[in-house]
Amino acid sequence: MLNKLSKGFKLAALSLLFTGSLSAQQAIYLRLNEVMPNNVDNYQDDYGKQSAWIEIFNNSPATVDLGGCFLTTDINNPTMYPIPKGDILTKVKARQHIIFWADNNPSHGTFHLNFALDSVKPNFIAIFDSNGKTLIDSITIPPIGPDQSFARVLDGSGAWALAEKVTPSTNNKILTGQEAVLKFKENDPTGVGMAITAMMVVFFALIVLYVVFKCIGNTAMRISKRNALKAQKGTVVQKPVDLGTESGEVFAAIAMALHEYNNEAHDLENTVLTINRVTRNYSPWNSKIYGLKELPKKR
Amino acid sequence: MDGNFFSFLGENLTEFLTFTGFANVTFGHIFMIAVGLVFISLAIIKEWEPMLLIPIGFGILIGNIPFKDAGLQIGIYEEGSVLNILYQGVQQGWYPPLIFLGIGAMTDFSALISNPKLMLVGAAAQFGIFGAYIIALAMGFEPNQAGAIGIIGGADGPTAIFLSSKLAPNLMGAIAISAYSYMALVPVIQPPIMKLLTTKKERLIRMKPPRAVSQTEKIIFPIAGLLLTTFLVPSGLPLLGMLFFGNLIKESGVTRRLAETARGPLIDVITILLGVTVGASTQATQFLKWESILIFVLGALSFVIATSAGVLFVKFFNLFLKEGNKINPLIGNSGVSAVPDSARISHHVGLEYDPTNYLLMHAMGPNVAGVIGSAVAAGILLGFLM
After folding, report:
1. What is the ipTM of this complex?
2. Residue A16 pLDDT > 50, yes or no?
3. Among B351, B369, B338, CA closest to B187
4. In this structure, are A102 and A53 located in the same domain?
5. Band (A297; pLDDT cuts 50, 70, 90)
């Protein structure tokens, strides 16, 4: 009983460990994506004011909650702005963006930071995980002109550059989702390339399986022969039987015969085939006269 | 009782009549209901794939009952309706992997393990998918649509639904109906092609009986199969993962209850839901398009190409095999993954020429290899075109 309980506890501990690591893993997909340190006449917050902003991108295929993570402009003070927990708006859907206002006005809400960005000097910005120690992403923004933004060329990954267009809360590069299709349309309009490539992959996959199972099969047959030889040692049978290449049907027939013999099946049959006429006692239950399908007779 | 009351009753009745099917019926509805009735008749009278054609046929009737578009949340395309909720399994693509779980739990891969070269026949039959892809492109379909249509040639309903839900959701109804229709018509489509492409001598080839396969080999198969195929084509993971998982719970011998649930109640429930909702998705207003007819034509072509490719590949393969090891080309058709129907066809056609030549067990090899091959092909198309 105790042994069972201990196993249960171990399993529970293991599952908790995995759950913990999963939730921790999610925040690592967050990326600083675009920053405007000197907002003069650009994007406005809910209060109608222009302030510097930092855009964060969720580079994962699932929703990530930023609540509990930290934003900072000082590597030595990673917990400068703790993003409040429990705000439903901090949950960022897959491959979506969220904006934080660096206006040093946290009383305006979750997305208003307790620090501002310098419009003249380079700005170091970092996001830390909820433990306040694990750096998720950081960037140093060089001094840029008013109403200009410094952004990743491709959302969530790749190099940073001065953005050609300012794109708060939207993709830095517009993707139609049809790139792969367009690529095939342009380079392989007949589909022959796709057919050749795909058939090669299908054949390769099944050839690999064939080779592996050929080897496994040969090994299994060798083992089977060896075991058969071992079993025959000391018996009167002189010539070893090659069990490895025997048909499965033969084994099935032998097994069935033994099974029936051991269970004494078919020794006494209930049904007898005969050419003699068999008399059967009359019963109204098997009489066609009383059949339910009999049609009413007209008189 | 004054006149107002009677006019109120009259107005109510007139209003009610506008909600009835009779007031909203179109030629399209009548046509699709007729199609549904044909499916049900084929299933009951001819016993062609009754497990699929009865739910799909009845689903077509359900989906084509005309009604007034008044936000009553009854149609399959109305968000929040019961049918729409059930349809999510098709749209989001989670019914097909569950079907694959059941298929894995009921499939015996012994024939394939005992004679692994038959895997190549399963690979050859996938030409049907890519042949149809080429023709679909020539007909003017976009590459993603052509990929979704081509998969009909894999003769695997769940795979066709899974792939079309990802690549071309707007064509999914037509693709699913086409795939299942041709799977039901395998006994009609395949034998003439098999006879046309083989000589009498080839049809009489006797194959070595398959050797006995140990349980260890059967247990290694799903594990090695998963690792080898999905490392190569990770996009096939939902289908291949569930197929091999289902097979492992069958072959491990220690999870009998799980295997029985997967191959019994679970697959039955999902088949019912999948069949009815796929059928209901053929709502005339959404389904009756020129594209749907083209998809049916392409579906037939893909089956013809797949069957021919399988048979011709075996003939080609025989050129390299020693006498006594040759493969009967009549099992080439079973490279398509309509399990076990195409294997049964090989068996029946073989018996026509030699009543003592039993090809069923041999044909099951390429048949189950076809399931793996079509799932791999679907993964490739998904990886390239998504």
Report:
1. 0.86
2. no
3. B338
4. yes
5. low
Domain positions in chain B are: 90-385
Residue A289 is predicted with a pLDDT of 52
How many other β-carbons are positioned within 10 Å of the β-carbon of residue A239? 6
Residue type for B365, please? G
Is A125 domain-assigned? yes
Provide the CA B69 distance to its chain's centre, in angstroms: 32
CA distance A55 to B321: 65
Q: Are residues A57 and A180 in the same domain?
A: no
The answer to whether the Cα torsion of A84, A85, A86, A92 is positive or negative is positive
Element (H, E) at A154: strand A150-154
- Is the Cβ–Cβ distance between B313 and B119 less than 8 Å? no
- Most distant pair of Cα atoms in chain B: their distance: 98
Cis geometry, peptide bond prior to residue B340 (ω within 30 degrees of 0): yes
Chain B hits for A200, Cβ within 8 Å: none
Of A217, A233, A249, which residue sits at a domain end?
A: A233
Element (H, E) at A162: strand A157-162
Domain that holds residue A52: 9-175
User: Residue B89 belongs to what H/E stretch?
Assistant: helix B82-91
C-alpha span between B39 and B4 (Å, rounded) = 50
Asked if residue A196 and residue A57 are part of one domain, the reply reads: no
Residue A73's domain is classified under what CATH number? 2.60.40.1260
Q: Give pLDDT < 50 ranges for chain B.
A: none
Best probe of the B interface among A184, A187, A190, A206, by most B CBs < 10 A, is A206
Say which residues have a Cβ less than 8 Å from residue A272's Cβ, sequence separation at least 6: none
Residue A116 located in a structural domain = yes
Contacts of B257 (CB under 8 A, 6+ apart): none
Token pair belonging to A108: 């305006």
Give chain B positions within 8 Å (CB) of A249.
209
Tell me the pLDDT tens digit for each residue of A208-242.
Answer: 989 998 998 889 888 888 888 888 775 655 555 55
Contacts with A213 from chain B: Cβ below 8 Å: 112-113, 116, 119, 217, 221, 224
- Give chain A's domain count: 2
